[in-house]
Design goal:
Layout: E1 13-22, E2 25-31, E3 36-40, H1 47-55, E4 80-88, E5 91-99, H2 101-105, E6 111-114, E7 117-118, E8 131-134, H3 146-160, H4 163-182, H5 189-222, E9 233-238, H6 250-263, H7 265-271, E10 282-287, E11 292-293, H8 299-320, E12 327-330, H9 339-352, E13 356-360, E14 373-379, E15 382-386
Parallel strand pairs: 3-13, 3-14, 8-12, 12-13
Antiparallel strand pairs: 1-2, 1-4, 4-5, 5-6, 6-7, 9-10, 10-11, 14-15
Bound molecules: adenosine-5'-triphosphate and magnesium ion (MG).
Adenosine-5'-triphosphate binds near residues 41, 47, 70 and 72.
């Protein structure tokens, strides 16, 4: 089947998921035709592992950012695979990813296939399915490391501006090169000039993509969405870019960046790193009602702010993909959330139309959506289906 053709009535839902030797699942198969799919079980039973498996159908290392070898079942033969079928208005598309034990030993990348054809990389899965996740580890996003916030934010940007991912990769590689060349910069001036020119060009694209994505997300978060209990907020970027005006033309931004990198050379050489540029950007959310930045809000408020961003992201994704909603993976989303907000969250998701994969320690957490939900009990990496 060709790339998913997008039309107003389009949808992309997972109808089948198989895990083979993935984490504590020797073999797990799930079939569903519901919009909500929930995994219920004790701590350590294998719930998050199922949604981590789905997250492997996006570019990168999935929701745990794990190494491939960590994901093979310790009782298996060393390899693992995940297969899923996604249902669209045009039929079924088959997606597969995994790695064999010998490829693992040789340090190879995982293989990715769609309808039997190999993809160049997992990045190409994004042509078939959009995946957004929220995990309990992200609860500390606003008070944790700046790098994690930037990665989280850049991932959102990638769903809106797919070229962003390659730009970030290329940019990071060039910054590393620049740091190396800086050590003997007096001998390598022309090389440094050349690298900084390249860096500035990519950096300008990165800044512009971030700006576009931020504006789109902020517009949605600012709009009155019907009955939405999640806070109205605004993404705020904290750049380390001196006086650069990111609203100027691309050529001007590039020139300003080049000047900035040039001026920072001596300091950067002395500190063994590049102190300015989009790799230093931080971001936060401004909670309108509290008149406060997210890092100063309560734990529950911070979580709700994150949910606001995720919902906005799903809506923007839908806008730019002619009505197709992304798949949502929400790990332990109901923890620390009041009942009214839990049912409102499911209402908002219902409105967006995203198929949503959930985890929780009790099926009662999903009572308010029981009629639309497939609930599976997991015990030690094995599933029982609960008819509801
Ligand atoms: N490569 C692996 N092989 C076998 N088991 C693994 C592997 N990696 C992780 N596990 C185990 O998988 C189990 C389930 O992990 P998972 O995070 O999915 O649990 P969970 O059901 O989400 O639990 P919680 O409710 O605590 O979040 C853990 O006991 C973990 O030790
Ligand atoms: Mg878990």
């Amino acid at each position: 089947m060709d790339k998913v053709e997008k039309s107003a009535s389009s949808f992309v839902d997972i109808s089948k998921l198989n895990l083979t030797d993935f984490r504590n699942h020797s073999f797990t198969s799930v079939e569903t035709d519901k919009k909500f799919v929930a995994f219920v079980g004790r701590n350590g039973s294998g719930k998050t592992n199922v949604i981590e498996a789905i997250s492997m159908f996006s570019s990168g290392k999935g929701l745990r950012g794990a190494q491939l070898s960590e994901q093979s079942n310790i009782k298996g033969n060393g390899g693992w695979s995940i297969f899923m079928e996604v249902k669209t208005a045009k039929g079924i598309t088959k997606l597969g990813t995994g790695i064999g034990s010998s490829q693992m030993m040789e340090g190879k990348a995982r293989q990715c296939r769609v309808d039997g054809k190999f993809l160049k990389s997992s990045r190409e899965f994004t042509n078939y399915v959009g995946i957004i996740w929220l995990t309990p580890q992200m609860d500390r996003l606003f008070i944790g490391q700046r790098t994690d916030r930037r990665k989280f934010f850049d991932k959102l940007v990638c769903l809106i501006e797919p070229s962003h991912e390659k730009n970030i990769k290329d940019y990071d590689r060039l910054i590393m090169q620049r740091n190396r060349v800086l050590v003997d910069m007096d001998d390598k001036k022309s090389w440094l000039d050349k690298i900084e020119k390249q860096i500035s060009k990519i950096a300008a694209n990165i800044l512009i993509s971030r700006e576009i994505a931020t504006n789109r997300l902020n517009k949605i978060m600012d709009a009155e969405v019907k009955n939405n209990l999640f806070p109205s907020a605004k993404i705020v970027m904290r750049e380390e870019l001196g006086d650069i005006n990111t609203r100027s033309s691309m050529i001007e931004i590039e020139a300003q960046l080049q000047k900035l990198f040039f001026q920072s050379r001596v300091k950067d050489r002395d500190t063994f790193r590049t102190n300015v540029g989009p790799h230093r950007t931080d971001f936060t959310l401004y909670y309108n009602k509290n008149d406060m930045y997210a890092e100063n809000c309560s734990t529950g408020e911070q979580k709700n702010l994150l949910v606001s961003v995720i919902l906005a992201e799903a809506r923007v994704y839908q806008e730019i993909n002619n009505g197709i909603s992304p798949i949502l993976l929400l790990d332990e989303i109901t923890a620390h959330m009041d009942n009214e907000r839990v049912s409102n969250l499911f209402e908002q998701i219902g409105d967006i139309g995203s198929q949503t994969w959930l985890t929780g320690t009790s099926e009662h957490l999903f009572d308010c959506i029981s009629d639309k939900t497939d609930i599976f009990n997991i015990n030690d990496g094995k599933l029982d289906h609960n008819a509801v």
